[in-house]
Amino acid sequence: MQKLIEKRIQKFADEYGFNEQPISEQFERYVASVYLHKYLQGVPELIDKVVLGGGNDEGIDIAAVIINGQIVFEPSEIEELIGDQAASSARVIFIQAKTSERYDAKLISKFLHGVETVTKSAMGSYVDTLAPRLKDIALLIDWVAQNGDRFNEFQIPCEIFYVTTSKSNGSTALQDSQVKSSLRRIRDLGVYKEELRLQLNGAVEISDKQREHHGPQNIKFQFEKRQTIPATEGIDQAFIGIVSGREILKLLQDDSGEFRSGIFEDNVRLDLGAKNPVNCRIAETLRTVNRNQFPFLNNGLTIIAKSLNTVSDTCYASGYQVVNGGQTSHQLVRWASSDQVDKDPSLLDSLWVPVKIVSSADPDVRSRVAVATNLQTAIGASDIQASAQIAKEVEEYFAESGTDGLRYERQARGSAHAIDYPKTRVVGTSELNRAVAATVFGESARAIGSPKELEIEGTFVWGDYPVELFYYAAWIIYKIDRYFARTADCVVLKAAKYHIAMMVSAFVNPKLIDKFQNGNTETQKKELEGKKGRSELQFDVNSGNLDKAIEDAIPKAMSIAAEYFKGVLLEGRSLRKDDVRSRTHQKELIIRVGRKLGAEPAETSLKPGGGGRQ
C-alpha cells in the first residue's frame, strides 16, 4: 500500500474512532466514507451500517440502496421517502475495497458473482448461503423492483466499484474473460440499466472522489446575462443575473444525472417533495407558458463558491453550494426529466433562472452568506433542550472525561466536525435523549419508535439529575456500538440496540428492574431528582467496577436479544425497526433479565420467544 494512502486511512481511523480495527477493515470504512460521502455525511454509525464485511460476504464489502438521494436500510424507510410522490429515484451501489495494489481478476470475478447472487435473490431465486446483511440488500432491491411503477426509470441504476490502492486504473483487468463473463451475467438479468459497467479504481480515483467532498471542482457554465456586484472585503467576485435552464443543470447535476455531492449542505431545507404547495406552484410555472415569466415569479438561486474564474461569458465554479433555492433546484431537475422536456429539449434554453453567485476564499465570509440567506431556519426542539443549564453542565462533565472519554456536542448544527474529537465518541442531544430513555427509564421502545417524543419540552429525560447519569447512559450506548463494530455476527441485532442498552443497564443496576417494570417515568423522575433515588443506583462509570460490569453485561444482553428475536433472525435477515419497536418486546426482555439475575418479577412472561411484530 502506498504510504500516502496509508496515512490518509490512519487519519480517518483516528478521526472516526475506527483505529482498533485491522487495516483492511479501516480501508473498507474509509472507502465507504469517500464513495458514499453525500449519503453518509461522515456519520460513523451509518458508515458501519453500509460495510458488510465478515462472514460470507460474497466479496461485497460495501453496499447501499439510495432512494430520492437518501440511503435506506429497511423497506419501511423507502415507503416513507416515496410517500405520495408521482415518481421517485432509486440507485444501488456495490463496492469491494482491497488494500492490495493489484487488480486480481479472480477476486473481481468473485465480487461480480456476489453482485449477481444478491440480485438473483432479489428477483426470487433461492440462495441458501446468502449472509443476513446481503439478504437485507436483496430485500430492498426486491421492494424497488416490485414497486417499479413508482420510480422514474424502468430498470434500476447501479454502480459497481472495485477499489484498490493501485497507481493504475486497472483497465487491462476489464478485458479478462472471467471478468467480462461475470459482468455479462449481471446485465443479462435485466434488473439494472443497460449502461451498467464495472469501475476499477486506484489511489488516483480515491483521491479524486475525496476532493469532491469540498464541493464540485471547475464546473463550466455560461453566464452571459449578468451584472457585476462591486467587490468588498472578503468577497473576491460577485455577479447577479439570469442563467439558462440548460446551464443551471450543469451546476446542479453530475454526469450520471445525480445531484452534485454536497451542494445543499448549507441549505437548511431539504427537498420538500413534489406535492409541497410551494413546489407545486414552481412546477406549474415551469409546465405552462408562464415559464417565460420565471425570473419575475421565482427568487432563483443564491450560490456561494470558494473560487470562481471567468473567461468572457464562461464561468468555472469550484467548491460551491446552493445556499438558497433548494426547492427551485429540485423542481428544475424534475421538470428537466419530464416528458415535456424530452419532447422539446429547447425549452431548457428558453428558460431563464435568476442567479446570484458570490465567490470568497474566506470560510467565515462564506458561512455568514449561508446564514444570512437562511434566516428562516427553525429552532429544533432538541436545540431548546440543549440551551438549558443542566445541558451546559453535562457538556462540561463530558469534556472533563479525558482523552478516552466522550464529548457532548450541545450546540450541534448537523455535523460532528464542530468538535475536534473521534466522531464515535461525540454524542448529540437527540442521541443522548434516547440513551437516557432506554438505560435510566427503561423506555427502550420509545427510544426506538418515537424518539421525537423525547424532544418535547418538559420530557422526563431531562431533569435535575446528577450529570454522571447522562454520561452513564451515553457510555453504555458507546460500548454497545463498539461491540457491534468488532463482532460482525451480532450486527443483525443492531435495530434492537436500545433494548440491549436497557438490559445492560438492568444487569449492572438490578434495582432498576422493578422501576422499568412499573413504567412510571414521572415517579422515576422524582426519585432521581431526590437524594435517596440517586444513592440507590450506580451511575459513575469511573468508580468501582461499573465500567467492567457494563462490558460483561453486553454479551449477556446480546444473547437474550438473539434468543428472543430468533424467529425473525431465522428468516436470514437483520432485525428491522418494525420488528423491535413494540413495548411488548421491551417488557418481555426486562423479564428475561430478571430471570437471568435470579430476580424475576412476579408477573408471568408475556410471550415465549420469537419476537417480531406485535
Structural write-up:
- Residues 264-514 form the Abortive phage infection protein C-terminal domain.
- Pfam families: AIPR (PF10592).
- This is AIPR family protein.
- It is a single chain.
- It is built from 29 helices and 15 strands.
- It has three domains: 3-214, no CATH class; 219-372, no CATH class; 381-596, no CATH class.
- Mean pLDDT is 87; it is low at 413-417 and 600-609.
- It is globular, with a radius of gyration of 26 Å.
- It is an alpha/beta fold.
- Strand 4 (158-163), helix 8 and strand 5 (198-201) form a beta-alpha-beta unit.
- Strands 2-1-3-4-5 form a five-stranded mixed sheet.
Features:
29 helices, single chain, AIPR_C, 3 domains
Q: Over the alpha carbons, how many angstroms does the gyration radius reach?
A: 26 Å
Unreliable residue runs: 413-417, 600-609
| Strands, total number | 15
Oligomeric form: single chain
Strand portion: 5-15%
What is the strand arrangement across the widest sheet? 2-1-3-4-5
Largest sheet: number of strands, sense, barrel closure: 5 strands, mixed
State the helical fraction. 40-55%
Give the mean pLDDT: 87
Counting DSSP H or I runs of 4 or more residues, the number of helices is 29
The structural class is alpha/beta
Count of structural domains: 3
Our measurement of the CA-to-CA distance between the termini, rounded to an integer number of angstroms, reads 51 Å
Overall outline: globular
